[in-house]
Specification:
Helices cover about 70% and strands about 0% of the residues.
């Protein structure tokens, strides 16, 4: 599963966290669920959630952008 997670997140590797949008995450999630890889989709959300929460805490990103 780690390889699959890595593969799906590859498009974000060279993107600053402040430039990643909710739509970017939604696109990845939709791509994964379209293939019926629901466990992988949830694993990715579990992986990304604390990363983005910490970025909000450190004021690297604005929470409002992810709520829209």
């Amino acid at each position: 599963m780690a390889q699959r997670v890595k593969m799906y997140l590859e498009s974000l590797y060279n993107t600053k966290i402040s430039e990643i949008t909710k739509d970017d995450i939604q696109k990845i999630f939709d791509e994964i669920t379209a293939k019926k890889h629901y466990v992988t989709a949830n694993s990715i959300l579990k992986l990304l959630s604390p990363i983005f929460n910490k970025a909000i805490e450190w004021r690297l990103i604005d929470k409002i952008l992810f709520m829209e």
